[in-house]
Amino acid sequence: MASLKFSVSLDTYDSNKFHFSANPSFPIINSFARVKPINLSRLDAESWDIPDSNPVAENIKTSWSKDSGGLESSNYRNDIWRRFQVVKRENRKDPNSKLRSARIDNGPEEKIYVKHFDGELDMNEYAMVSELSVERCNAILKDLERSSDSKTMRFFEWMRENGKLKGNVGAYNLALRVLGRRGDWDAAETMIQEMSGDSNCQVDFRVYNTLIYACYKQGHVELGTKWLRLMLENGGQPNVATFGMLMSLYQKGWNVAEAEFTFSQMRSFGITCQSAYSAMITIYTRMNLYDKAEEVIDFIQEDKVTLNLENWLVLLNAYSQQGKLQEAERVLLSMQNSGFSPNIVAYNMLITGYGKSSNMDAAQSIFRNLQSVGLEPDESTYRSMIEGWGRAENYEEAEWYYNELKGLGFKPNSSNLYTMIHLQAKYADEEDAARTLDDMKKMGCQYSSVLGILLQAYERAGRIDRVPLILKGSFYEHVLVNQTSCSILVMAYVKHCLVDDAIKVLQEKHWKDIIFEDNLYHLVICSCKELGHLENAVKIYNQMPNKKPNLHIMCTMIDIYSTLGQFSEAENLYLELKSSEISLDMIAFSIAVRMYVKSGSLKDACSVLETMDEQKNIVPDIYLFRDMLRIYQQCGMLDKLRDLYYRILKSGVTWDAEMYNCVINCCSRALPVDELSRLFDEMLSRGFSPNTITFNVMLDVYGKSRLFTKARKVLWLARKRGLVDAISYNTIIAAYGQSKDIKKMLSTVREMQFNGFSVSLEVYNCLLDSYGKEGQLESFRNVLRRMKESSCASDHYTYNIMINIYGEQGWIEEVANVLTELKESGLRPDLCSYNTLIKAYGIAGMVEDAVVLVKEMRENGIQPDRITYTNLINALRKNDEFLEAVKWSLWMKQMGL
Is 120 exposed, middle or buried (0-12, 13-18, 19+ CB in 10 A)? Predict the structure, then answer.
C-alpha cells in the first residue's frame, strides 16, 4: 500500500470510555480494519449534542430542570405515547376511517387535543392551547423533529408566539438541528443571537456543537470554522467533541490552515483530544509537511497525551512516509511496550516505508518474520510488496507476490495493476501483459482507461511497436466498436510513426459516424503536421475512404502540400474547395494566400484576396491583414495599400508591435508623411518597440521630406536602443546628399565611422553623386581613390554615376574608360547605364552612337523605357535632328510611353 489515510469516524462509540450502555447506533471508535483507512476519532466523555434519532443520545444530554424549560426525564415521553396509543386504538375501531380524533384529559390544568393520521403526528391538527407546559411543548417538538422539519419549525414558531422559548435551550437546539440539516446558516446565526438576547438562554458549546455536527456531516469546512470562531467571539469554551468533529472535518478535505487554527485553539484551552493530534499529524503527512508533523509529535510529549492505538499508528505512518524507518521501528517497539499487541497495519506501514525507500531487503525481512509475531500477511501486505519491488524494477519478485496475492483470493488494486503493466512493458513478453489486461477487465476497469495505461507504459519503455501484438481478441474488438478507444489508439500510433497500423485500425473500425470520423482524420493529420511528419499526413489523407470535400481537412492539406513545395497539389485542392458548395472562411482564404505567396505567384494571391472581398461577411484577422499588406507592397499597389490601411483602422483590430512595424514598413510610400509620423509616435507612446527596419523606414521618410530634425531624433532613438545599423547611416547620408547638404553628410559619415561602422559602398556612391552634381570634381576623384584604397568594389550604381558625371562634362574618353572598366569587372550595362550613355552621347554630339545604343539594348534583352526615348529625343533636338526627333516621338506615343 502506497500510503495509509486516517480519518475521524463518527459512526461508532466506545461505551467503556463513556461509561454508558453500548449501543451500535451511537458514535464509537472503529477497530482498525486490515485494509481500510484507519479511523482516528475518540471523544472523551464530554457532552456532544447530536440528533435525537440516536436513542443513546438521551443518556448523554444533561437533564433540564423545570425552571429552565428542559425535560425532566423520559417518563413523560413514555406517558404521552401511551396516550397516543388510545387514539390509535380508537382509529382501529373504524377501518374505513383514516382520520380520528381523541381528547386526552390530563387533569383540570392541561388538555391536549390531538389528531392522528396513519399513526403519525400531524402538527396541523393540534389544538394548541397556551396552557401547555414548556416540558410538554418540548416533548411535542422533539417528536416532530424526528419526522418533519417543516412541522418542527411551525411548532417552534408557535412556541415563540406563546412565550415558550424563554430560557428554553432544548427547544432552540432542536430548531438548530433542523436549520443545520436544511443548510439555512443565516437563520441559524440569527437564532443564536435571539437566544442570547430576547430568550435569555445560556449559549454554550452544546448549541454550537449542534451546528458544527451538521457541517461535519455535510463537509462544510469554512462554515465549521465560522461556528468555532463565533463561539470564541461570544466567550464560549469548546469541548473535546468540538475539536474532534472539526479536526475530522479538516482531515477529510486536507485543509491545513483551518486545522492549524483549530489545533492551536485546542492547546490554548488545555484540552486534550487524541483524535485531533492524529488528524493534525495525518494532514501534515499527507501534504508532505514532515517537519510540521514532527512538531505535533513533540506537542504530544509536551502535552502528556496518553496515546491510543490510533495515535501510535499515525506516528508510525508519519515516520514511514518520510523514510525515517529507524524512528518508525522505535515507535513500533514503544507501542508494543505500551501493551498494544502486534498489529498487521503497523507492519504494513513499515513495509510501505521500506518500499518507498527502495530498501526491499528490509521489507522482505519484515514480511518473512510476520508469522514469528503471530500475524499473517493480509491483502495490503502483498500489495505493498508488489509496489516496493515495482519501484526496485524487479519484475520477477513483483510477479511472485502478484501471483500469491491472486492465489490467496485477494484482488490487486489499481496501483498494483499499473505497476505490473509498466514492468511487463520493459521486461516481459506480450502474453504476460495480456494476462494483466484480463485482470484489469475482471476488476471492471474501463477499456479506454486500460488502453491508456497500456499505451503509456509501452511508450515509456520505448516499445510502442509491441502494442499491436498485445491488442487481440475482445480487447481489439472493443477498440473497433468504441470511438473513444479507437481515437486513443490511432493517435498513439500516429505519434510514433506507426502509420500503417493506424490506417489498419481506421479501415477495420465498426462504428459509423461521418462527422466524428472527419474530425478524427483532421486531428490525425494535424498531429502529423505538428510532429513534422508531413509525408505521413499525405499518406493518411490519400487513404481516407470518404473524399467528400471537408473544409478543415483540405485547408490543412493545402498548408502541408505548400510546406512540401507541392504547389500544384495544393492549388488543385484549393480549386476543388472553391468549386464545391462549401463557403470558404477567413482561415481558408489565409491558407490559400500563403500558398500562392510561397510559390511566388503574387498575382494569384491578389486574385484570392479579390475573391475574399466579394464575400462581404469575411473579416480578416490581424495575421491576414499583415499578409495583405506585404503582398500589396511587393506588387507596388499603392492604392490598395492606402485603402487597406484605412480598412484596418475601421476594423477595430487590436494593434500590436508587429502590426505597427508591418504597416509603417509596407505603407511608407502609400501614406502621407504626417500619417506615418502619427503612427510612429503612437507606437512609441503605447510602449511598443520599433524594429531596425521601421527605424530605417522612418529615417528614409523624414529624409526624403527634408524633416532632418525628426530624422536625427529617430537616429538617436535607434542608437539608444541599440537598433542602429549601417543602413540607418546610409539612409540619412543619402537624404543629406539629395538635399545637397554636403557638410552634414560628411559629419554623419564621420559619426558612422566613430560608432564602429565602416564606410559602405552606398555611402561612397552618395558622396560621388553629391560631389559630381555640385561640380566638385577634385573631391569626386578623391572619393574614387579612397574606394580603391579600401578595396571597395564598384557596382552598377557607381559606374552609372561616373558615366553621368563625365557625360555632363562632355568627357567622352572618360565615359569610354568607365564603360570598359564596367565590362572588365564582369558586369554588363543595365537600363540605367544605357540611359545615361545616351544622355552623354547627346551632350557630346554623338547622335548616331546614341541611336546605335537603343538597338544594342534590344539585342541584349533590355527593353527601352520612357527615359530612354526621352534622352534620345533630347539628344536629337540638341543636334538639330528635328525630323528624327519627331519620328522617335511618334514611335514613343505608338508604344504607349
Answer: exposed
